[in-house]
Write a structure and sequence with these properties.
It is a single-pass membrane protein. Helix content is about 55%, strand content about 20%. The chain is α+β, with helices and mostly antiparallel strands.
Amino acid sequence: MKKHLKKLSQLAVMGTALVTLSGCSLFGEKVTIEPASVGKVLTKNGFKDGTYGPSRFRLDPCLMYCDRLITLDASDQPRFEKFQLFMPKDQLSMNFDLRMTVSVDMDKIDDIYNRVPAEKGRIDILKVYQTYAQPIIRDVARQIMAEYSINEVASSRERISTELQNAIASALTDTPLKLKRLGLADVQFPDIITKAKEQAAERREQIERERAQFEIQKITQERELAQAKMQRAIDREKAEATKEVNEILSTSVTDKYLSYRALEVLEKMAESENKVFVPVEALGTVGLQQALFAEQTKKTSKQSAN
């Protein structure tokens, strides 16, 4: 009995080894579909209907012809295209990039599996992009950009980006890829255009400086004018005041008033010890003036001797 069981065990081991060596599996191969990927099972008669999302499972058991899992990257793909385009309106060449995000159209997965060959059980999404999307994107972008001048591109980049996105998205509707977003980027204008823009910017800056200087001069001159007007008003008021005083004096100072003031002076002089009485009429004579000068000289000499 023991010999019989041992023989059966040996036969089972040999059978398992033969199955393994022939590439077949009685329990089905374990397979995995990574996140952001899809998979289809390839049988000897073609792909099974339907797709599998991220998961782990076993393929059907097989003896001679075993199924295989073919996966495809279904994640959003960032792509960019570089262009050097001759601009007909300017007769100049301009460089620019298109940066975009594309993804697989899940309703057209079967088109990819039926037309793009897999390598080592996986379809390269870059090959899908290069086959279906890249030629269309480059052709549509060239057609649209060639309609604009370089100055229009510089001043309307956002609007042109929107136009490109709409046109390319529409052109890709018949392909298994779809466009999610697109933008015009890294625009490099010809040197002659760049220098012209720099010179224009310098001119604008110079104009702004001159305008600012003019405003400063204007304010300064307005201040000086206001000060001059104020000074003239002050001088005019002073002149009018002086005129009024003179008019008052001319009408109020009479001969009688002057005689009265002379008597007041004589009264004050009479109260002083150092006094000499001289008739008022003689004050203007030359002889009295010489006498007064001689008297004053004597007093000065005595004070110096003492």
